[in-house]
């Protein structure tokens, strides 16, 4: 077979065995279909099938569905004269070579393509051979990557119908469409899901020294990695101060921390090793956000602002001064005198902030990766004394939440929320 799918377009000839087999094929009257005149005309970009079938495709045709192009080259072999393929999917160390030229239009080097067994650049050709890229059909949608907690399903397309070549333009538009699926909550939080993936690699040794296997307990590397780097399976060794990638990538749908704080309702989740942003409608890059009332794509008219301040309470006792109802959004509560009072947060009879008689340290509940998280921040003066306490809850709240204060002396607590009750 020749580089353009025809016969003998380069100086390769049929072997005696091939001649015998093709002669037998014709003599047994099995080749009646080839008597039809070609009806393709100028299709396949004037007989450059490599624009449609890349090296991986040619390897699969020659050696089976698991074959792929070799990841290294032999400088003694012209790039376009030999098809070199990895046959074993688990072996990248050896290549099997077939003495057939790559199809015309196959990319053989950056900005170079095979033509008649030679690797040529656009400068070697006239402008009439320029080929602009076009998209393939969309693939079938993938299964949801998680059974709960918000997995991802996606479909892809490739710029290979044909591939851009000889100085042509690439395809416009995205090569992937994705959306969140199975978004009902899991029993465990988003941090637990990442921690589970890290811990699964505990039995896998880390070779820090030659011939020496070291074993560690691996935990999420939040605070050390974020964005795309975080999605590349970055985990921290517990009790140590280094992080390592423990695999190719986290499971699609694993939550990540975007380098820039996403807008209200935007979800940052890993997809094929990258930290991607999904709109409140669950669609990749839709940009759709929630309004202040927590309504996806709303205009803020479905709720009202409730605000107020509180100065009561008992000394050395926790007193509930604000009960936040289910679906409350954009809640901000500030205590401006934490030297004399401190706040606590109680959900379902359990304290998640303070509650033990002393002021809390900075915390995020249930984790920095969860969408409906509570953020508690203790701001200090330059002298490292408590200056303000702040509670931030984007919402919408899934459970009723009680905000309490414990007074040592005078008061100072104020709150703003959409919509909630403030005593």
UniProtKB/TrEMBL annotation:
Disulfide-bonded cysteines: 59-85, 70-95, 80-114, 108-119, 144-181, 148-186, 159-171
SMART domains named among the record's database cross-references: TSP1 (SM00209)
Superkingdom per UniProt: Eukaryota
Boundaries of every ADAMTS cysteine-rich domain copy: 49-120
UniProt subcellular location: Secreted
Keyword Hydrolase found: yes
Domain ADAMTS/ADAMTS-like cysteine-rich intervals: 190-303
GO molecular function, one term: metalloendopeptidase activity
InterPro entries in alphabetical order: ADAMTS/ADAMTS-like, ADAMTS_ADAMTS-like, ADAMTS_CR_2, ADAMTS_CR_3, ADAMTS_spacer1, TSP1_rpt, TSP1_rpt_sf
Major subcellular location class: secreted
UniProt-annotated binding residues for Ca(2+) 1: 33, 36
Residues that coordinate or bind Ca(2+) 2: 36
GO (cellular component) term, any one: extracellular matrix
All residue ranges annotated as the ADAMTS/ADAMTS-like Spacer domain in the record: 306-408
A GO biological-process term: extracellular matrix organization
Keywords: Calcium, Disulfide bond, Glycoprotein, Hydrolase, Metal-binding, Secreted, Zinc
Name this protein carries in UniProt: Uncharacterized protein
Organism (species): Salarias fasciatus (Jewelled blenny)
């Amino acid at each position: 077979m020749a580089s353009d799918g025809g016969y003998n377009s380069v100086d390769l000839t049929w072997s005696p065995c091939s001649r015998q087999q093709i002669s037998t094929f014709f003599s047994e009257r099995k080749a009646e279909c080839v008597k039809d005149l070609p009806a393709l005309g100028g299709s396949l970009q004037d007989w450059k099938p490599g624009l449609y079938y890349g090296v991986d495709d040619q390897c699969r045709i020659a050696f089976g569905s698991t074959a792929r192009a070799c990841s290294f080259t032999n400088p003694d072999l012209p790039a376009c004269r030999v098809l070199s393929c990895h046959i074993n999917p688990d072996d990248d160390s050896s290549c099997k070579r077939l003495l057939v030229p790559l199809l015309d239009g196959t990319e053989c080097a950056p900005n170079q393509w095979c033509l008649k067994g030679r690797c040529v650049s656009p400068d070697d050709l006239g402008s009439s051979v320029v080929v602009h890229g076009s998209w393939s059909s969309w693939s079938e949608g993938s299964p949801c990557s998680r059974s709960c907690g918000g997995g991802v399903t996606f479909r892809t397309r490739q710029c290979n119908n044909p591939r851009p070549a000889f100085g042509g333009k690439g395809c416009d538009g995205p090569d992937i469409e994705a959306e969140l699926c199975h978004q009902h909550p899991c029993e465990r939080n988003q941090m637990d899901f990442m921690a589970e993936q890290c811990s699964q690699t505990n039995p896998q040794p880390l070779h820090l020294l030659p011939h020496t296997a070291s074993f560690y307990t691996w935990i999420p590397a939040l605070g050390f990695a974020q964005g795309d780097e975080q999605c590349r399976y970055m985990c921290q060794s517990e009790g140590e101060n280094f992080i390592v990638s423990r695999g190719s990538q986290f499971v699609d749908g694993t939550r990540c921390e975007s380098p820039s704080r996403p807008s209200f309702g935007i979800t940052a989740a890993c997809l094929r090793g990258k930290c991607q942003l999904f709109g409140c409608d669950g669609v990749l890059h839709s940009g759709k956000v929630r309004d202040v009332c927590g309504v996806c794509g709303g205009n803020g008219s479905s709720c009202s602002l409730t605000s107020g301040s509180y100065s009561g309470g008992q000394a050395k006792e926790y007193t509930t001064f604000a009960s936040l109802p289910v679906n409350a959004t954009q809640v901000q509560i500030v205590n401006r005198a934490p030297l004399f009072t401190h706040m606590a947060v109680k959900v379902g009879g359990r304290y998640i902030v303070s509650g033990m008689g002393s002021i809390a340290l900075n915390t995020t509940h249930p984790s920095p990766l969860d969408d409906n998280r509570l953020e508690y921040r203790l701001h200090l003066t330059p002298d490292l004394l408590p200056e303000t306490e702040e509670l931030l809850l984007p919402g919408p709240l899934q459970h009723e939440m009680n905000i309490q204060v414990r007074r040592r002396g005078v008061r100072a607590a104020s709150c703003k929320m959409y919509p909630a009750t403030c005593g």
